[in-house]
Each structure stands twice: as C-alpha cells, then as structure tokens.
Amino acid sequence: MRRDVFQAIADPVRRDIIDLLSQQPHTVNEVVEQFDISRPAISNHLKILRECGLVKMATIGRERHCVIIPKELRRVSDWAQCYQRLWEDKLDSFERYLSELKLKHKNP
User: Fold this and answer.
1) Distance between CA 2 and CA 51 in Å, rounded?
2) How far is Cα 77 from Cα 4, in angstroms, rounded to an integer?
3) CB-side neighbour CA atoms (13 Å) of 8
4) How far apart are the C-alpha atoms of 89 and 70, rounded to whole Å?
5) From the centroid of its chain, how far is CA 17?
6) Rounded CA gap, 31 and 29, in Å?
7) Between 51 and which of 3, 20, 75, 77 could a Cys-Cys bridge form, CB atoms 3.0 to 4.6 Å apart?
8) DSSP strand E in 1-108: where?
C-alpha cells in the first residue's frame, strides 16, 4: 500500500524521524535510541515513511540504514507555498493596521 506524504508528516514522531534523518542516515538502532518509545513503534513509523516514499532502507552488513528521500517532501512545500501568500497578505494588513493605530495615538 502506498501512503500519502501528508500521512507521514501528520504524526509528530514521524516528523522528528524525518528531521533526524535529514541530518544524516542512521541505523534503525540509532533511530530507536533517539526516542522514548518502543522499537516496534519506531519500526511502524519507519514502515509508514517508506510507504510514503520518504525513507529507504539499505542493508549494510548486518545493519539496516535509514536514508531520507527528500524529493517527496517537495509536495508538502508546494502545497504550503499556496498559503504563504495568504499569510503574508494578512500579516501586511495587520502591520498597516498597527501603523494606523500608532499614528492615531500620536496625533489624537
């Protein structure tokens, strides 16, 4: 089953795993050591991240290494950028409002 990248980032633990792997690849054991949850729970999160195409596993010797595939995060970035303009407009409007209040306060 192929999951959606938005399912991956919906969970805070998976977001933290993405952050961790964005710094450098880690073995599964190294990922487990970074969290205060069970190994099976981390394995499940890694499975979801793999199904979403955000992480791939590479076996080197007896260890499984987790490597991030950031390309899929582009969809999240593209989606969020659609709303960036909306927020910029709202913040600009709020800034103008505050400036007007400041002027009215100086010149009653």
Assistant:
1) 5
2) 14
3) 26
4) 29
5) 9
6) 5
7) 3
8) 26-27, 55-60, 63-68
pLDDT at residue 25, rounded to an integer: 95
| CA nearest to 45, candidates 23, 71, 26, 24 | 26
| Structure-token match 């195409």, residue found | 53
Q: How far is it, in rounded angstroms, from Cα 19 to Cα 22?
A: 5
- Threshold 0.85, pTM exceeds: no
How confident is the chain (108 residues) per 10-residue block, as mean pLDDT? Answer: 82 96 95 96 95 92 93 87 81 83 75
Beta strands at 55-60 and 63-68: parallel, antiparallel or unpaired? antiparallel
Which residue type does 67 have? V
Q: Whose structure tokens read 């190994």?
A: 39
Helix axes 12-23, 39-51, angle to 10 degrees: 80
Q: Which residue has the tokens 């938005």?
A: 6
- For all residues of the chain together, what is the average pLDDT? 89
- Residue identified by tokens 């969809």 is 75
